[in-house]
Amino acid sequence: MTVETGMPYAEALDRFEPVLGLETHVELGTRSKMFCGCAAVFGAPPNTNVCPTCLALPGALPVANVMAIESTIRIGLALNCSIAEWCRFARKNYFYPDMPKNYQISQYDEPLCFDGYLDIEVDGKPVRIEIERVHLEEDTGKSTHMGGATGRIHGADYSIVDYNRAGIPLVEIVTKPIPGTDRLAPEVAKAYVTELREVMRSLGVSDVRMEEGSLRCDVNVSLMPRGASEWGTRTETKNVNSLRSVERAVRSEIERQAEVLSGGGRIVQETRHFHEDTGTTTSGRSKEEAQDYRYFPEPDLLPIAPDRAWVAELKAALPELPSAKRQRLKAEWGLSDLDMQAMHNADAIDLVEATVAAGAPAADARKWWMGELARRSNETGVALADLPITPAQIARVTVLVASGALNDKLAREVLEGVLAGEGSPDEVVEKRGLKIVSDDGALSSIIDEVLAANADAAEKVRSGKIAAAGALVGGVMKASRGKADAARARALILEKLGVSE
Ligand SMILES: [Zn+2]
């Protein structure tokens, strides 16, 4: 049964309760692959980072990458997991052209890390996401289907395969089923993947670039009628590759399933594909059961038995995790939950932190990143962190403002110059002549012109209506194209007109 349009979200939620599950794959940033010495890098010419082991030539044997095991244990510890005292790799048997061995070395019933959790916050409320397992496996190669209109295998003339990615260490993080999210299901899914990505980033184990596939998410959704106790059949939407898509995929799958179930249909357990353009999912293949993979322990690799002292050492050396860091910075910067959440959503916390470290007051650093630069980021579609300006440059601008060399308006022009590639803040000030005019000589001649041109206002001030001085200061600002030191100009105007405040 194909359903083109789903039930409106609000109605779907009136009738059904969703249960989520999230499987996230993270490509580790190790220098070499999981079971051979090939470089594990993104973007090399096709089939250049390959060897007999990752091409599965006869007789080649795998050797496990200890850095990958270490990174996986650190991920498990950061996610509050237990670390296995003894576990094995397993062969997961299936055929796919981009997997040269016809099996993937993975972990099955003996994952390296298990039974953890990650706390997130959604809509101001804490939500605990339970982690079922964190296991280690190898990535597959990459197939590209040529000649078709859609880039999919259907309708393609032929396919080509790049094995550079085959054998790159991949960590799979699987949540336990997540019931009780109700209407917030899409937001919970997105918040979880966002937080997970930040944990990975703080551990330094992966570059977690969703657009390059180093963090990929499969979204499981099932629905049950409100008040029911038995969960429905779930679908698995594969490789959703942006945070926004995680949210959209959950929403669209809820709407679709609700429509099917309300029409008396049943949900097929299958994998589905998410389409960025329409925001909907379409049917992929019917989902294999575990027995279809004929798992068995990998005979070419030794079991992993991490030494307890080593695990304790890794635990003690974990960095400050993102949620703890946010709590600390919030207190240090004296911000409200709302302000902190806004910065978190804008991905601005690390940038503000770096700007403060470079010498800016926290309030100023936040003002520029969340104001002028956020606006620029929105206009251009370039992420804040990718704007061509550094935290150190922002810090320099705040110092120039604090010293009175720039006012806010001039500072904005300086930022504009830096963003336009005109050099450092000081170079832009120099080139564009943006320094505030505060020396009395230069101001004095501008003021004389303004007084001559505004005789009426000058007379009012002279006769005691000091409020009229505002218009004269405005005239000086205009004549100096915003560069006059307004306070100094006002003092000089009053002095010239022989009045005091
Ligand atoms: Zn290799």
TrEMBL record:
Which keywords does UniProt give here? ATP-binding, Ligase, Nucleotide-binding, Protein biosynthesis
Q: Which reaction does it catalyse?
A: L-aspartyl-tRNA(Asn) + L-glutamine + ATP + H2O = L-asparaginyl-tRNA(Asn) + L-glutamate + ADP + phosphate + 2 H(+); L-glutamyl-tRNA(Gln) + L-glutamine + ATP + H2O = L-glutaminyl-tRNA(Gln) + L-glutamate + ADP + phosphate + H(+)
**Domain Asn/Gln amidotransferase stretches:** 350-497
Share an example GO biological-process annotation for this protein. Answer: translation
- List the Gene3D superfamilies hit by this protein, alphabetically: 1.10.10.410
Which enzyme class?
A: ligase
Kindly indicate whether the keyword Nucleotide-binding belongs to this entry: yes
> Molecular function terms in GO for this entry?
ATP binding; glutaminyl-tRNA synthase (glutamine-hydrolyzing) activity
Function recorded in the entry:
Allows the formation of correctly charged Asn-tRNA(Asn) or Gln-tRNA(Gln) through the transamidation of misacylated Asp-tRNA(Asn) or Glu-tRNA(Gln) in organisms which lack either or both of asparaginyl-tRNA or glutaminyl-tRNA synthetases. The reaction takes place in the presence of glutamine and ATP through an activated phospho-Asp-tRNA(Asn) or phospho-Glu-tRNA(Gln).
Quaternary structure and interacting proteins, as annotated: Heterotrimer of A, B and C subunits.
Name it: Aspartyl/glutamyl-tRNA(Asn/Gln) amidotransferase subunit B
Q: Species name for this entry?
A: Nonomuraea glycinis
Q: Which gene encodes it?
A: gatB
